């Protein structure tokens, strides 16, 4: 029933985009074809390069208009590409515009948008009236031909065909707008190299911020925890030294008490240092994920089913990213999901590592809803990983991380 409701629930913006998009598609296609045709004709004259340069700048403007329309009507935010560099000299600037991949991809989008615009307009504006005419065909026949008229197979077929086509209209409109979204993301956004540079810059900024925060937290823990324990140990040893040389001889009872206290303080300090070192690099990772992940799930406050398929061992940096990703996701499950159980599955084969955490909680997890998942996505991007979240309201939540097993 939910799938059926989603099938028939076409938003008003999608209808508006299908109707308004046709004139823009026609104008855009005419512009793109005119640029190519006129540029080819003028290429033999001195006007050719200036004309194409100006036309490519105009194509960038049309791309911005289509991105705005997609966001306003379809709610699809297409990231704007980087601006053109501005070198010194008119010839250099013209060369930058002529070799701009964004402008050429925008011209391709304008050409491909025309058939989609025609089909979208036909589905949203022409097909429903046509379906109404087919459904009312028996009535039109009686209005046009007075007198008794029996119902024929054509009457029944026209009604059935009209109802069938009318029921297909929402699906067709949604499918065409889906193709428009994918086409715009592919051709109107930044080039793949630009997108990769942005992702790496964001990942670097995230890692720098996390490392700075981790160093500050480590410094605070060492100052407030480990250093205080060592100071207490030094005081205990000083008291023990005083107990060795009193005027009437050593106080063995007090000395034994102080030595026991010093031993306990030493054990606590060692445990504190191990906890801090584990936060930097878990010792269990020395033997791989096969040993580290079961130890991690054993400390989780809810039952976790572990499934491992580790046919190859990834790079150390990838292992560390998978481990901390699993730790963060299980912590989120325990804190926010109200889940009763969780499942952790990790596979490493054919050069890829996949981590999946599933819980039976309340759902509603999404990137941007909190800093944890957003930071986790940035950390994975630093090792060419991606994070996917499927968490409908009411659950279940399935979070998947995909990473390469080798970084080079």
UniProtKB/TrEMBL annotation:
InterPro entries: HATPase_C_sf (IPR036890), HATPase_dom (IPR003594), Put_sensor_dom (IPR025828), Sensor_HK_TwoCompSys (IPR050482), Sig_transdc_His_kin_sub3_dim/P (IPR011712)
GO molecular function, one term: ATP binding
A GO cellular component annotation in the UniProt record: membrane
Domain of life of the source: Bacteria
SUPFAM superfamilies: ATPase domain of HSP90 chaperone/DNA topoisomerase II/histidine kinase
Transmembrane segments: 12-34, 40-59, 114-136, 156-176
Domain Histidine kinase/HSP90-like ATPase: 317-407
Keywords: ATP-binding, Kinase, Membrane, Nucleotide-binding, Phosphoprotein, Transferase, Transmembrane, Transmembrane helix, Two-component regulatory system
EC top class, as a word: transferase
Pfam families: HATPase_c, HisKA_3, Sensor
Signal peptide: none
EC numbers on record: 2.7.13.3
Catalytic activity: ATP + protein L-histidine = ADP + protein N-phospho-L-histidine
The name this protein goes by in its record: histidine kinase
């Amino acid at each position: 029933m939910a799938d059926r409701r989603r099938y028939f629930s076409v938003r008003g913006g999608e209808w508006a985009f299908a109707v308004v998009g046709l004139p823009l598609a026609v104008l855009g296609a005419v512009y793109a074809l005119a640029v190519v045709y006129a540029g080819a004709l003028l290429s033999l004259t001195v006007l050719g390069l200036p004309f194409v340069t100006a036309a490519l700048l105009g194509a960038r403007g049309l791309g911005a208009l289509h991105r705005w329309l997609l966001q306003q009507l379809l709610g699809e935010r297409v990231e704007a590409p980087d601006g053109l560099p501005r070198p010194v000299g008119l010839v250099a600037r013209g060369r930058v515009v002529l070799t701009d991949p964004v402008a050429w991809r925008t011209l391709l989008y304008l050409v491909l948008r025309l058939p989609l615009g025609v089909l979208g307009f036909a589905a949203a504006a022409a097909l429903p009236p046509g379906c109404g005419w087919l459904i009312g065909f028996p009535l039109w026949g009686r209005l046009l031909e007075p007198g008794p008229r029996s119902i024929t197979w054509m009457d029944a077929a026209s009604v059935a065909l009209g109802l069938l086509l009318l029921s297909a209209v929402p699906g067709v409109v949604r499918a065409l707008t889906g193709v428009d979204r994918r086409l715009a993301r592919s051709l109107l956004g930044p080039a793949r190299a630009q997108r990769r540079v942005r992702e790496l810059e964001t990942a670097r900024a995230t890692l720098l911020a996390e490392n700075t925060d981790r160093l500050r937290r480590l410094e605070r823990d060492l100052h407030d925890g480990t250093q205080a324990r060592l100071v207490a140990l030094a005081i205990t040893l000083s008291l023990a030294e005083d107990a060795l040389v009193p005027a009437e001889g050593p106080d063995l009872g007090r000395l034994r008490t102080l030595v026991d206290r010093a031993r306990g303080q030493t054990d606590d300090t060692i445990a504190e240092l191990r906890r801090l070192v584990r936060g930097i690099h878990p010792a269990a990772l020395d033997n791989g994920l096969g040993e580290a992940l079961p130890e991690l799930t054993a400390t989780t406050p809810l039952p976790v089913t572990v499934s491992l398929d580790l046919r190859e061992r990834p790079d150390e940096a990838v292992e560390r990213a998978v481990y901390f990703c699993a730790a963060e996701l299980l912590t989120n499950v325990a804190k926010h999901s109200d889940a009763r159980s969780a499942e952790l599955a990790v596979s490493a084969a054919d050069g890829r590592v996949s981590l999946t955490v599933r819980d039976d909680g309340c759902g509603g997890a999404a990137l941007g809803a909190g800093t944890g998942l957003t930071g986790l996505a940035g950390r994975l991007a630093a090792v060419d990983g991606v994070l996917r979240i499927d968490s409908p309201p009411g659950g279940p939540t399935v979070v998947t991380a995909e990473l390469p097993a080798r970084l080079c």
